[in-house]
Amino acid sequence: MDGVLQTKKPMAPSRRALLGFGLALATVPLATGSRAAAPPAAVALTPQDLADLRRISAYLNGIHTMTARFQQRSSGAGAASGSLWLARPGRMRFEYDLPSPILLIADRFYVYYVDKQLSEMSKVGLKSTPAWFLLREPITFDDLVVTGLERGANGLAVSVVDPAEPDKGSLTMLFASQPPALRQWTIVDQQRKTTTVSLSDAQFGVALDPELFVYRDPFAAGRRQFQP
């Protein structure tokens, strides 16, 4: 029906690659009967590596609320920008700048993808997305496979894979070193498509309206009004 927000089937991978969770919706289960991915190989971690992972976990667990601007680059989908709000555990909002009509909301249970231009919504379980790593409580590397840890001029890059579901893809996070600060993350999905989100103007510990993280059907009132 024209003008009515309708829930549709999960999006194809090519469309989810546009989002990047930005981060969250780059994951689509492989088709039934597809060959399972090989178990991910863990990188050998030195005592310094383990100490750095503990520092990063402590830093991420100390983030309770956050706002920031983001720049997103996706293979095959160009660039986009917008604003994000985060409230741990489990809640996040990505609002893309015009002309993009996309809004993403995580509400502890689901990630909602809203296309305001097409008046369409679809959702996926939050725990089935890489976004869950940053939104869960507590954040730890103990139940993940660390597939890479690199130090460079821009800081420390850590790559992880869920050993239980390696088909979900990999997450690489870039942190400034001293003090630790999340600067960027990159998702590589099972189609080998890459989405990178870079953060700027981050603010922490700010009071956020809980309504930011509630999905509400903007056309619900119209449907009630026109019911026979």
Description:
There is one protein chain. The chain is mostly beta strands. It is built from four helices and twelve strands, in the order E-H-H-E-E-E-E-E-E-H-E-E-E-E-E-H. The protein has helices at 13-19, 47-61, 131-135, 220-225; strands spanning 6-7, 65-74, 78-87, 91-96, 102-107, 110-115, 120-125, 145-152, 155-161, 170-176, 181-188, 194-204. It has a twelve-stranded mixed β-sheet with strand order 1-7-6-5-4-3-2-12-11-10-9-8. It starts with 5 loop residues before the first strand and ends with a helix.
Name the features.
single chain, 228 residues, mainly beta, twelve-stranded mixed sheet, 4 helices
Give a topology summary:
Blueprint: E1 6-7, H1 13-19, H2 47-61, E2 65-74, E3 78-87, E4 91-96, E5 102-107, E6 110-115, E7 120-125, H3 131-135, E8 145-152, E9 155-161, E10 170-176, E11 181-188, E12 194-204, H4 220-225
Parallel strand pairs: 1-7
Antiparallel strand pairs: 2-3, 2-12, 3-4, 4-5, 5-6, 6-7, 8-9, 9-10, 10-11, 11-12
Please, what is the average pLDDT?
81
Q: Low-confidence segments, ≥5 residues, pLDDT <50?
A: 1-20, 23-35, 222-228
Rg, alpha carbons: 18 Å
Largest sheet: 12 strands, mixed
Distance between the termini: 15 Å
Percentage of residues in helical conformation: 10-25%
Number of helices: 4
Strand count: 12
* Global morphology: globular
Tell me the strand order in the biggest sheet. Answer: 1-7-6-5-4-3-2-12-11-10-9-8
* Secondary-structure element series: EHHEEEEEEHEEEEEH
Backbone structural class: mainly beta
Strand content: 35-45%
